[in-house]
Write a structure and sequence with these properties.
about 625 residues; alpha/beta; seven-stranded mixed β-sheet; globular; FAD/NAD-bd_sf; Amino_oxidase; isomerase activity
Length: about 625
């Protein structure tokens, strides 16, 4: 969940225009002019999204010999260069067809595409931006390497049936992901501040300080009730699931014995509790009679960080999985060395290892439907790319709907999507600054809650801060730090809707709405931090989020509450059109979108191929 911005003016990056032509041949993420050109007084210089124009190849030679440069404004000149790069990107697609076309290279799209390539399918992943990763991509400014989205990870090193779904995908692709490990984050709440450690015992001393007299007893009661359920919650590996009756073989028959064994070990009471796995987690809390305000607020915070909804909206299975990862003996958190972009790089390596293709700067304008079936896509500029078996959209449900001809979409399907509530958007703050004066024991993660009474889902109330250079120093120049702060899916899009990004009104609102993040950063970093001395200062808004991630209204995703609705499956009313990502089951979050991509990939191959993959990775 996040975005990117650009720093430094055109002049500082002008040499990138004159890289040799070979630099455009790679399908991998590479520094390009598109990441540096700003076509307006943009969102404090985040890297520009791809700009596409119809532009004949002849104009490149005008550019090349300089004849057309004289007398043109620099702006016009740069647009010609960009347009030529767009034309070259069409060539990188290779043959204009594939077995499966994947729209979007977010985590879900890359997991889907890479697994399909592993299944020996001809896969083409089309990405509108000039780098892969979607909300998880990274970007670089002045030698500072920024995460644009998720930075709190766990389970990458786990293996077997109960592993993180993303870890299972990487294992299937034969890709490793070196990580730094840690076990704590700083928490700043109205009651005070403390270093919160994961694990079965450390949180009890925090409860002694900040919670009521019964809090320890209630927390132990919660752990005793839900940790045994984790065996059932994790008994069915996401990589085993598919969207057809073949699931009876790949998941049902294969894992039924272990699932039944886990129920037997839990006894009648545990088995009864397992029936609540698909109900809101608040029902478990209420059934246990937990009343301490601090515990209930803390659980709401964890649920919101995991899925964008509080405990009354998150599936119990999701929370139980998280508790099993964070509150068991020997657990740890992980951060990928070289940043969250390393996750994307690993998935791209896996895609290309099995001859899958990734085409950047390839904006899909429409999904082409013929005789009621999805047969391919049309790119901006008019190029048609045929899909022989399927089209998979990694875009949100609202953006996918906008790619389809309205006349072919059943009205009930349209209405269901249009009526689905959305999570709000984000404010982002990316900083690069000198580490001098900053305490040496600075941790990577900091969570600031300003007011419990307003709720963790209230706007301007919770700020998350990540300083990944603490664990991966290569993300910043020597002696420097890189920082990403954001409000997690709580910024109302309505405040920004219709604003001109060039206007003073927009700039003033940015300054006003970003102040809560600045204050949180100053609280976390201490008196040695001076905002005026930051070498990179980038502020992103819901409009930035909408523009760079091409997300409808800049949304975090569907605000679907457990017990009141369910995330859609992966098929659509249009034959040969499938969806993956945070608009589909199992929902929002890195593990969830990785699972969704895997489910779609599995569904597009035979049961025997699917079973062979499960055997190969040992699950």
């Amino acid at each position: 969940m996040a975005l990117r911005l650009s720093g430094g003016g055109i002049g500082a990056n002008f040499p990138h225009f004159f890289q040799p032509l070979s630099s455009f041949k790679s399908k991998r993420r590479t520094p390009t002019v598109l990441a540096r050109v700003s076509n307006d007084a943009l969102d404090t210089s985040y890297p520009s999204p791809t700009l596409t124009h119809n532009f004949p190849v002849l104009d490149f030679f005008h550019f090349y010999n300089g004849a057309q440069v004289i007398g043109q404004s620099l702006r016009s000149f740069l647009f010609k260069v960009i347009s030529w790069i767009q034309w070259v990107s069409y060539l990188s697609i290779g043959k204009p067809e594939a077995d499966v076309i994947v729209i979007g290279s977010g985590i879900g799209g890359l997991c889907c595409g890479a697994l399909l390539a592993r299944y020996n399918q001809d896969v083409l992943v089309l990405e509108s931006h000039d780098r892969p990763g979607g909300a998880a991509h990274s970007f670089e400014i002045k030698d500072y390497k920024f995460d644009s989205g998720p930075s709190l990870f766990s389970g990458f090193q786990s293996r077997g049936p109960q592993a993180n779904p993303l870890a299972q995908v990487l294992d299937a692709l034969g890709e490793s992901l070196p990580c730094a490990t840690y076990d704590s984050w700083m928490v700043y709440i109205p009651e005070g501040e403390f270093l919160s450690r994961i694990g079965p015992t450390d949180f009890f001393k925090d409860l002694q300080t900040y919670a009521g007299p019964d809090a320890e007893k209630e927390w132990r009661k919660l752990l005793d009730a839900i940790l045994p359920l984790s065996t059932a919650a994790m008994a069915l590996p996401p990589l085993s699931i598919r969207g057809d009756w073949g699931v009876l073989s790949t998941a049902g028959a294969r894992y039924a014995p272990s699932l039944l064994k886990s129920f037997a070990q839990m006894g009648p009471q545990g088995a009864l509790g397992a029936t609540k796995l698909l109900r809101p987690f608040s029902e478990i809390i209420n059934s246990l009679g937990l009343k301490d305000p601090f515990i209930r607020n803390w659980v709401d915070l964890l649920a919101f960080l995991l899925a964008g909804v509080k405990s009354d909206g998150i599936l119990s299975a999701e929370m139980i999985y998280m508790f099993s990862e964070w509150y068991k003996p020997g657990c740890c958190l992980e951060y990928p060395l070289h940043g969250s972009g390393a996750v994307v790089d690993a998935l791209v390596r896996g895609l290309e290892k099995f001859n899958g293709r990734l085409s950047l700067r390839s904006h899909v304008e429409n999904i082409v439907v013929e005789d009621g079936r999805a047969i391919g896509v049309k790119l901006r500029g008019g190029q048609f790319v045929r899909a022989k078996k399927a089209v998979v959209s990694n875009a949100s449900m609202w953006d996918t709907l906008n790619l389809l001809p309205k006349e072919v979409v059943p009205k009930p399907y349209q209405e269901r999507i249009q009526m689905t509530p959305q999570c709000e958007s984000f404010m982002h703050l990316h900083l690069g600054f000198d580490a001098e004066g900053i305490r040496e024991d600075l941790g990577i993660h900091h969570i600031v809650v300003n007011d419990w009474e307003r709720g963790v889902d209230a706007d301007q109330n919770v700020v998350l801060i990540s300083v990944p250079s603490v664990l991966s120093p290569d993300l910043a120049p020597p002696g420097k730090h890189v920082l990403h702060a954001y409000t997690p899916g709580t910024e109302p899009f309505e405040l920004w809707e219709g604003l001109d990004r060039r206007s003073n009104e927009y700039k003033e609102l940015k300054a006003q709405r970003s102040e809560v993040m600045w204050k949180a950063v100053e609280r976390a970093l201490g008196p040695g931090f001076d905002r005026e001395k930051c070498e990179v200062k980038l502020v992103g808004t819901p409009l930035t989020h909408q523009r760079f991630l091409r997300r409808n209204r800049g949304t975090y995703g569907p605000a679907i509450k457990a017990g009141k609705g369910s995330f859609p499956g992966h098929s659509t009313p249009i034959p040969q059109l499938f969806c993956c990502g945070d608009s589909t089951f199992p929902g929002i979050g890195v593990p969830a979108v990785a699972a969704s991509g895997a489910i779609v990939a599995n569904s597009l191959v035979s049961v025997s191929q699917h079973s062979e993959l499960l055997d190969a990775v040992g699950i």
